[in-house]
Design goal:
Layout (H helix, E strand, L loop, with lengths): L3 H13 L4 E5 L29 H6 L1 H15 L7 H11 L3 E6 L5 H5 L4 E3 L2 E8 L5 E3 L19 E5 L8 H13 L2 E5 L10 H8 L3 E6 L12 E4 L2 H12 L2
Parallel strand pairs: 1-2, 1-7, 2-3, 7-8, 8-9
Antiparallel strand pairs: 4-5, 4-6
Helix pairs in contact: 1-8, 4-8, 6-7
The chain binds nicotinamide-adenine-dinucleotide (NAD) and zinc ion.
The site of zinc ion has 8 residues, from loops.
Length: about 250
């Protein structure tokens, strides 16, 4: 296969004829929504110190962590909208083709785009949880101008409900992702370097169980050369739009 058009046709064919299509997304799918990835020269960690998301650091310095967390995840992420990459996946679910999205993202944009079955491997930034009593709050319920935000029941420290460095994967999302990867006959990876453990094992499991792997990324990833069957070189939104045009034709 040579050019992108031929590869789009082959991928659209695989997707349309799949029995159990599963999508696996990383920070790259939200780049066209204006949310940078963590790594690379434009990445968030070129500007911020990742220690604010370290659980020990957060517990010892909640106010210092929260100032940065608010700026990145609420002032900035809060304004982002889904792009054709997210909308393509929600449409594929609506068509009955896509069975679930497994995402490493915490930006909630798959749900905003209309996806119903989303396994959030790293949690979600739109919920805060009390570190003392466990009560959960949605963002509009909390005054983020008060730093650090506190539980209205017990005055405990609130923490975003996504995993910090040093925390384990939420068990329900982990098990659901594993089960989906085992069942998938076609598996589409969008915008992930494959460097983050243990999320990066999920596509490996799909491959071991016989899934055909489609990948969308403007740059080759850790998956491209040993896992990917069809590599669609481009941005998530652009490539999804081309794929959907073929699938819905
Ligand atoms: P990453 O930051 O390691 O890599 C991003 C990948 O996206 C790269 O391979 C890059 O080539 C690709 N990419 C860049 N622009 C793209 C585009 N327009 N379309 C498609 N792909 C594009 O991302 P990762 O592997 O997901 O790991 C980073 C971790 O950080 C994740 O686990 C996630 O939890 C977290 N994170 C989340 C968000 C978010 O919620 N949007 C943002 C940054 C980081
Ligand atoms: Zn509480």
């Amino acid at each position: 296969m040579k050019n992108i058009q031929e590869k789009i046709i082959a991928a659209a064919d695989l997707i349309s004829n799949s029995n159990y299509l599963v999508a696996f997304t990383g920070a790259g799918i939200s780049v066209e929504s204006g949310i940078p990835s963590f790594r690379g020269t434009e990445g968030l960690w070129s500007k911020y110190n990742p220690e604010v998301l370290d659980l020990n650091f957060f517990n010892k310095n909640p106010k210092e962590s929260w100032v940065v967390i608010k700026e990145i995840f609420y002032d900035f992420f809060g304004k982002a909208n889904p792009n054709p990459g997210h909308f393509g996946l929600s449409r594929l679910e609506e068509l009955g083709i896509l069975k679930c999205v497994i995402t490493q993202n915490i930006d909630n944009l798959h749900q905003v785009a209309g996806s119903k079955v989303v396994h959030e491997f790293h949690g979600n930034s739109q919920v805060l949880v009390c570190t003392d009593c466990g009560k959960r709050y949605t963002i509009p319920e909390v005054d983020l101008e008060q730093q650090p935000p506190e539980c209205m029941e017990c005055s405990g420290l609130l923490k975003p409900d996504f995993i910090f460095f040093g925390e384990s994967i939420p068990m329900d999302a982990y098990q659901a992702s594993l089960a989906a990867a085992e069942k998938a006959d076609v598996f589409i990876i969008i915008g992930s370097t494959g460097e983050v453990m243990p999320a990066n094992q999920i596509p490996e499991i799909a491959k071991q169980n016989g899934a055909k792997i489609i990948e969308i990324n403007p740059s080759p990833s850790n998956y491209t050369h040993h896992l990917t069957d069809i590599f669609l070189d481009g941005k998530a939104g652009d490539v999804m739009a081309l794929l959907m045009e073929k699938i819905e034709k």
